[in-house]
């Protein structure tokens, strides 16, 4: 397997092995079709999670959020 990518053919032959790997490591596996990503196999995440917990740590920058934006938006035209 090259990193976390695997071809459909290899995945088909070793699916259970890849499932166990994803469960153990928590890292997803990308299944490719003719070299292009087609599927992602990852650990199940319950939909019952708090939306704020899902977003925690995702804000990269928070500079003066209440100031006007000096950029003309395409929707404003």
Textual characterization of the structure:
With 77 residues, this protein is of the alpha+beta class. The protein has one domain (5-64): 3-Layer(aba) Sandwich (YefM-like fold). Helices cover 30% and strands 18% of the residues. The protein starts with a strand and ends in a 22-residue tail after the last helix.
Sketch the topology as an H/E string, one letter per element.
EHEEH
**Helix residue percentage:** 25-40%
Total helical segments: 2
How many separate structural domains? 1
Taking Cα atoms only, what radius of gyration do you get, to the nearest Å?
20 Å
- Number of beta-strand segments: 3
| First and last CA, distance | 49 Å
Using the coordinates above, name the CATH class.
Alpha Beta
Topology (elements, then pairings):
Blueprint: E1 5-7, H1 8-25, E2 29-33, E3 36-41, H2 51-55
Parallel strand pairs: 1-2
Antiparallel strand pairs: 2-3
Question: What labels describe this entry?
Answer:
77 residues; alpha+beta; 3 strands
Task: Offer a concise description of the structure.
The chain is of the alpha+beta class. Helix content is 30%, strand content 18%.
